[in-house]
Amino acid sequence: MCYYSKENAGYECVFANVQIGEYEIVTTEFFAADIRSENITSLVFQNSTIFKLPKVLLSAFPNATVLKMEHLQLNTIEQGAFDQAQQLEQLYLNFNNISQLEPGVFSGLQSLFLLDLDGNGLLQFPAGLFPSASNLYSISIMNNRLTRIEDNTFANAPELGYVYASSNNIEHFDLSLIPEAVMVNVSYNRLTEVKIPTKLKHLYASNNRINRVVSKGENKRLKELYLSHNKLTDISWVAKFPELKTLDLRNNELTDVVSEHFPAQTKLKTLLLKNNRLVTFDLTKVSLEQLRVLDLSNNRLTSVERNSALFDKVQKLYLQNNSIKTLKLSANNSIKEIWLTHNDWDCANLRQQLQVIDFSATLGHDFSCKPGYTLLTELCCKEHNIR
C-alpha cells in the first residue's frame, strides 16, 4: 500500500506480511512490480519476516530517503545492499538479529543522517562502516552486546552530534574523538573513564564504573551531567563546566564536596549527592544563586550550618539519613519541600527550625526513636550540649 505522506513530503509504501528467507533470491519486481518506484521516498515493513536485506530493494527504490525494517528477524545485510541508496537519509534496522556488520556495509549511504541499530545483539562496531565525509548526525546502538568502540569508528562522521549507546558492555569509548557531539548516552555500560568533548551539552553516563572524568579544557556548553551509580571519589573536574544546570552524582564514593570543586560562579539548578560517603559539604565560597534542588540524603554529614545561606535559597532540600545535629534556616527561606528524617537533631534547634519552615513543606516522619531520643513533630531529636 502506497500513499502520500506529509511527514516525509513524498510517497510512502508500507509492505505487510512479506516473507524472505536467508537464502531466497528475490528480484526488483518482487517489491516494485506494480509501483512507480521513482516516486517513492519512504519504505516501511510491518508484520513481516525478512532474514536478509536484499540488494535489489533499494535498487528498486533509488529515491527512497527513509527505510524502516524493524522487528523483522533480519540477520544479514547482502553485500552492496546500499550501493544504490545515495538518497537514503534515515535507516531503521532496530530490534532484529544483526550480530555482525561487515566493514564498508554503509559506504554507499552518502546522505545518511540517522541510523538506528538498537536491540540487535551486535558484538562489534568496527571502523570503516561509513563513507568518507559522512553526513551521519545521529546514531543509536543501544541494547546490544558491544564491548568496545574503537577510536577511529566515527572518524568518517565529522558531523556526528547525537550518540545513543546505553545498555551494552562497553569498556572503552573515547567520546572526545567525536568533536561535534551534542548529546551522548552511554549509561549502563562498563566504562571506567569518560572524556568529555568540548561542545557536548548533555551526557548520560550513569550505571558504569567511572572513577575518572577528563575534559580537554573548559566546556561552556555542558548543561546536564548524569553520573549516578559510578565509582567517583573526586569531582575537581566540575570547575571546568561553568554552565552546568544539572549535576547528578548519586550513588558514588565521594567523601568531600567543597567550594574548590566548583567554578566561582555556576548556573547549577539541581545538585544530587544522595548515597555517597560525604563527611564534608561546604559550598560557602561559591555563587549558587540559581540552585533550586539539593539532595544530600543518605550520607555521613554531622554539620551543615556553614551552608545556611545556600539552604535558604533552595526550594527542595533533602537531608534525611545523615547524623546532622543542627540547622540554621532563616525566616526568609524559600523551602517548599524538605526531608529531615533519620538524623541526630538537637531538640531545641529542631523546635526553632520548625517554626521557620512552612509546615506543608516538611515531608516524611520518623516512626520510632532510638533510646534517649524523643519524637518531636514526627521527628526524633535529643538534647545536646551544643557550644
TrEMBL record:
The keyword Cell division does not apply. It comes from Anopheles darlingi. This is Uncharacterized protein. It comes from the Eukaryota. The lineage of its organism: Eukaryota, Metazoa, Ecdysozoa, Arthropoda, Hexapoda. InterPro entries: Dev_Immune_Receptor, Leu-rich_rpt, Leu-rich_rpt_4, Leu-rich_rpt_typical-subtyp, LRR_dom_sf. Keywords: Leucine-rich repeat, Repeat, Signal.
